[in-house]
Design goal:
With 246 residues, the chain is an alpha/beta fold. Helices cover 42% and strands 17% of the residues. It is built from 8 helices and 8 strands. The strands form 2 sheets. Strands 2-1-3-4 form a 4-stranded parallel beta sheet, with helices on both faces. A 4-stranded parallel beta sheet has the order 6-5-7-8, with helices on both faces. Strand 3, helix 3 and strand 4 form a beta-alpha-beta unit. The longest helix is centred in the first third of the chain and has 17 residues.
């Protein structure tokens, strides 16, 4: 039996039922990779159970240690403000450590490539294919800079070119990045959504990909994503790294 802290995965939540279904599928994959680890899911909004409700239930059971893991790809407002505020309201008997967000990670780049290959590309297509790294978007400059850096890093793995794009709050939009890659002379253009679950903004990315040749699926419950969750959990539960992401 696993003796470590409970892993509480904190998702944003959405009115779109595909969001919660995808979050639960990802959490099930995490459980399958580490049998015996107790993994719970809480939502900030729209879905149940709420983060606060899960924390109160855990405290009532006598649980003491929790690693709270933001199901987020960048360290923006939710990771910096919303989630810490919710965790501060947790029952006092709980010792909670907030793990780092999921990105950036080489495993997430592997997951992005997995989704592109599932959508029909092959490794042999890389040199002639331009990729739009399509993020939800943020008003946080740190988050925007991280997406731009991921695009630069990914370009060096052999793609014709990689351009970041954003569904909200920032520019360029997906459709503009698609046109830019065409103008650069890339023979094929693919859109890779750098998002975890379906919803309003991923649908906007899909509409922006209308002129692309390939649109891959969201990251969802890809095995690489599940492995990143466990990496962040392990880092947060080590005493020396207990404050990571806080």
């Amino acid at each position: 039996m696993h003796g470590g802290p409970v892993l509480l995965v904190i998702a944003h939540g959405s009115r779109d039922p595909r969001h919660a279904a995808t979050v639960h599928a990802l959490v099930e994959r995490v459980r399958s990779l580490r049998p015996g680890l107790r993994v719970e899911t809480g939502f900030l909004d729209f879905n149940v159970p709420s983060v606060q409700g899960v924390l109160e239930s855990l405290a009532a059971e006598g649980v003491r240690d929790v690693v709270a893991l933001p199901l987020l790809l960048t360290r923006a407002f939710h990771a910096k403000a919303d989630i810490p505020a919710v965790l501060r309201e947790a029952p006092r008997r709980l010792r909670i450590r907030q793990a780092a967000v999921l990105g950036p990670s080489p495993l997430l780049l592997s997951a992005l490539e997995r989704r592109l290959y599932e959508a029909g590309l092959t490794p042999a297509d890389k040199s002639s294919t331009g990729v739009v790294l399509a993020s939800a978007g943020s008003t946080d400059p740190e988050a925007i800079a991280v997406i731009a850096e991921i695009a630069r890093e990914w370009r060096h793995t052999g793609w014709c070119a990689v351009r970041p794009a954003f569904a909200s709050a920032s520019l360029p939009r997906t459709e503009d990045a698609v046109r830019e890659l065409r103008a650069l002379g890339c023979r094929r253009v693919a859109v890779a959504p750098y998002v975890l679950a379906p919803g309003f903004l991923p649908d906007r990315i899909a509409r922006g990909a209308a002129e692309a040749d390939v649109l891959s699926d969201v990251l969802g419950p890809a095995p690489e994503v599940a492995r990143v969750l466990l990496e962040r959990y392990d880092a947060a539960r080590r005493p020396a790294l207990a404050a990571v992401g806080a």
